[in-house]
Every structure is written in C-alpha cells, then in structure tokens.
Design a protein that fits this description.
The complex is a heterodimer of chains A (about 250) and B (about 240). Chain A has about 250 residues and is an alpha/beta fold. Chain A contains 8 helices and 10 strands. A 6-stranded mixed beta sheet of chain A has the order 6-7-8-3-9-10, sandwiched between helices. In chain A, strands 2-1-4-5 form a 4-stranded antiparallel beta sheet, with helices on one face. In chain A, helix 7 packs across helix 8. Chain B has one domain: 3-Layer(aba) Sandwich (Rossmann fold), CATH 3.40.50. In chain B, a hairpin with a 2-residue loop joins strand 4 and strand 5. Chains A and B meet through helix 6 and helix 8 of A and helix 5 and helix 7 of B.
C-alpha cells in the first residue's frame, strides 16, 4: 500500500438504550490506502452506517481512534465527502445549487465555485440539468447530484453509504458502471457500504466483510479481477458464492 | 387455478401509448416472469390485467371468461409493504378469508399452515410495526396464498431486500407455488431473479410496450445461479433488455 489515508484503531461504539448499553461496533482496525476502493460488506443492521458516521466524523466513537490524512477526526469536515443512502438533497436548491453548496458556505468566490461545480456536474452526466430541482429528477439522477456535491468539496476521501440501495436493479447496474468511470477519472480513496454482493464485487479493490452486530471484521478479500468487471464471469460468480456463504445471516 | 389469455391488450393514458397490442397465453398453474427495461410499463401491465386500470382495447380472459373480480379469485402482492398496521400478523393473513366467509375452523387451519410455511408462527400476535421488512413481505405472501387464489400477481415484491434474503423468500415462494398450483405472474427488473423463478420469461420492449420474446425456462430446480446453463439464459435475457 503506497500511503495510508484512513487509519482506525480499536474503534468501538456503544449506544445507550432503555434496555441498557448496546454495542454496535466492537473493536475495528482498518487501514485504507490512497485511491483504494474499499467496500464494507455485511448483513442488514450490522453497523455499516455507524462505521461511515464514525469514519466521516458525523458521530464520535465511544473509544478508539480515527485518522484521515494523518489528522484525528473530531467532527465532519470538507476533506471527508459523504454520499448518503437516503437522498438528502436540498429540495429548495437546483442541481447546481446543491453541488456548489459546500464551496459556497466556505466562501469560495462565485466564479471559481461555479467552474468547479460545472466540472463535477458534467462528470456525473448531468449537463443540461443544472437548473433543475430535485423533485423533477429520477432516483438515479438525484444520486448523481449527491455524488457531484460530495466531489465538489474536493475531499481526500469519499464515504458512500449504500447510495444505490433504493434504485431498481437495472438503474443500479448503470450507476455502478458510472461510479467506476467517475472514480477512474477522479481518483479518490473511497469507502463504500453495501449489502449487495454483486455491487461489492463490481466496485471493490478490497471487500471487508463485517460480522453481525456487535460488529467486527470477519474477513477481507482483495479483489483483483480486471475492470470493468463482468457480473456473469465465472470467477466473479465463484467469489460471489464464497463471500455470500461466509456472511452472517440476518433475521 | 386458471389459464390466462390476453388478446391485443392496449392501454393509453391520453396520447401516451403504454401497452401496444400485447397478446399471450399462460397455462393453468404456470409461473410466468415478466421482465423489461426500467420504465417499460410493467406495473401498468399488471394493473390492466387486474382491472385496477380500465384497458383501452383488447381482452383478458381467465379460463375463457372476461376477468371479473367478483367471480375470480385473484391475489396481488405489491412492491411496498401493504400489510394493515392495525391488525396482527395472523389477522392480516386471515383477512381475505374473513371477507370470503370461510368457516372458522377451516380459516384457523389455513392460517396456521400459511404461518408455518413462511416461518412466522412465533410472530403471529405481533403487529407490522414490530417486524422487519422481509417479515412484512412474508406476511403479504401468506395473506395472498391463504385465499388459494387462481391467479397470483406479484409486482417486484423483493426489490428492496438484500440478495441472500431474496433467494430465501424466492425458495419459499417456489415451495408454495408447487404446493398450491396457483398461476403466477411475477414482475421484476431483476433479470437473474426472472431466470431463477420462472417457467417462462416474457421479455417486454421499451414503451410503447410489446412482447419482445417469450422464453421457456426449464432449468432444473433448485437452480444454481453459477451453472453454465443458468448464466447462458441470464446473458440472453440481459442482451434483450440491456440499456445501461
């Protein structure tokens, strides 16, 4: 690994509930290298979203350390872009307004932030929709805006929390292909959460399989299939079966 | 159980032609998967078959007679959760039987059997708000099968579930179907799912929607998604649909 961008050591998170303390994350050590695409993979409700929140600084760990770019994470920041599972665009802003929002609140001059926002809008394939409001966009297009918005802060890492979970199977294939293209062009360190094994295998350099709650790392797989990958390739299908079989069952 | 004949089914909304002269037949007890590109009018198609929509032209016959919801026993499982939140699991499952005035004893036996098949017996007194989304879909499936429908329509019921859970519920569905002999029309965006479930796969075109190909899927069950025959069929259906 060239250089480590994300480092977390013995990360733990416990929530207080009326029934007592509930351990969600139970000692995770994880390093992610520069420009690596890591997928956190595990069953429903296994604490994947909590991991994203801890790594991005949206929540504080109960104990343990998170460092991004050598700095301890103590809260959210523009260096750490997040694409959310629920489509969380500002409905009163156009696609452009959403994408340029981050630079705008940080006081980047208008000409500069417009130039940058336009670049990322073009990159995600939304040229021509700059002045469209979210309500007029399809699910896939909204997530494209979400990706452009996260990129527009020019973060050093991108966290993606199951961004395609609400899309139909075919639109999902499209978005996986698009995301890979975007990532090839604008390399970033990515941590991507999903419970869809096809998506994980299509995108990941490395898949980190999580235990069911309380969450630990169960196993890691380095995926070195050539890109772009074929969902029906025999090695792809073999890995899919192997990983599916070791994942804890929900229910 | 019922055979279906669809003749020249056409549906427009104003000037927008959605279903364009579709004809096909489904044999009694057959499991037909309907798959097509995103936005091709699959749901409109199902809603026309059930007469939730008035059709513009054409004819839909069940066992040779025009579809009549008072006469024919049709169940519909929706994409989103459609359990009744004020009823317990067992009350949800017995709901259709109550409407049909099934005698108490037969009703109870039927509900017990259905709860057993979908693995919800321990949760029979729970309310929907206490259940996970996969359990809610199982309640809907048990409710639909409890009335012993001649025809069961399913509109992408597993779209929001993770792959493992989907396969588990699909296997349960196949068990129920084999046991009851119900004719099933199953709509999905998921090509792998259509190849996994169907006896026949009907591939639709983009709008205005026509039938692109009707394919027989006689792979042995339980099916293996990595088997060469399976992959070849999935590839064929993908090639017919692919737009992404």
């Amino acid at each position: 690994m060239e250089s480590t961008v994300i480092r977390c050591r013995d990360l733990r998170k416990t929530y207080k509930t009326p029934e007592g303390d509930k351990k969600i994350i139970d000692g995770i050590d994880l390093c992610v290298g520069e420009n690596e695409f890591v997928v956190l993979f595990g069953p429903g409700q296994c604490g994947k979203t909590t991991m994203i929140n801890l790594l991005s600084g949206l929540e504080s760990p109960t104990s343990g350390i998170v460092e991004v770019g050598g700095e301890p994470v103590t809260g959210p920041g523009p260096q750490r872009g997040v694409v959310y599972q629920t489509i969380s665009l500002f409905p009163w802003l156009t696609a452009m307004g959403n994408v340029e929002y981050g630079p705008k609140v940080r006081g980047v001059p208008k000409a500069e932030r417009r130039r940058r926002a336009q670049y990322y809008i073009d990159l995600v394939g939304l040229k021509g929709y700059e002045n469209t409001y979210p309500v007029k966009l399809s699910g896939g297009m909204k997530q494209r805006v979400g990706i452009a918005r996260a990129y527009c802060n020019e973060p050093i890492v991108m966290f993606m929390d199951e961004p395609f979970g609400a899309l139909d199977a075919q639109t999902r294939y499209l978005m996986q292909k698009e995301l890979e293209k975007i990532w090839q062009k604008e390399r970033r360190t990515v941590v991507f959460v999903t419970n869809n094994i096809e998506e994980a295998l299509y995108l990941a350099d490395r898949i980190v399989v999580m235990h069911n709650c309380p969450s630990k790392i169960k196993r890691e797989y380095v995926i070195d299939l050539p890109r772009p990958r074929d969902y029906m390739d025999s090695e792809f299908l073999r890995l899919r079966k192997e990983i599916t079989d070791i994942v804890d069952k929900t229910l | 159980m019922a055979s279906i004949q669809v003749k020249n089914l056409t549906k427009s909304f104003g000037d927008l032609l959605v279903l364009d002269d579709i004809s096909f037949e489904v044999e009694d007890g057959e499991f037909l998967c309907i798959v097509g590109p995103t936005g091709c009018g699959k749901t409109t198609f199902l809603n026309s078959v059930t007469k939730l929509y008035e059709i513009t032209a054409g004819e839909i016959l069940l066992d040779g007679q025009p579809v009549d919801l008072k006469k024919h026993n049709i169940s519909y499982i929706f994409q989103e959760n459609s359990t009744m939140p004020w009823l317990t699991v067992e009350q949800n499952v017995s709901f259709g039987l109550g409407i049909k005035h099934v005698p108490e004893k037969a009703k109870r036996e039927n509900v017990n059997e259905m709860l057993d098949i979908v693995g919800l017996t321990p949760y029979r007194k729970y309310y929907p708000s206490q259940l996970s989304s996969s359990m809610l879909q199982r309640v809907s499936i048990a409710r639909a099968f409890a009335t012993k429908p001649e025809l069961l329509l399913m509109d992408e019921p597993y779209g929001q579930l993770d792959i493992e859970l989907r396969f588990k519920l699909e296997d349960e569905l196949i068990k129920l179907w084999e046991r009851t002999g119900t004719t099933v029309l199953f709509i999905t965006h998921n090509i792998e799912e259509s190849v996994y479930l169907g006896e026949k796969i009907m591939v639709l075109t983009n709008k205005p929607t026509k039938v692109k190909e009707l394919i027989r899927d006689d792979l042995p069950r339980p099916r293996d998604i990595a088997a060469p025959d399976f992959v070849a069929l999935r590839q064929h259906v993908t090639d017919l649909i692919k737009w992404w």
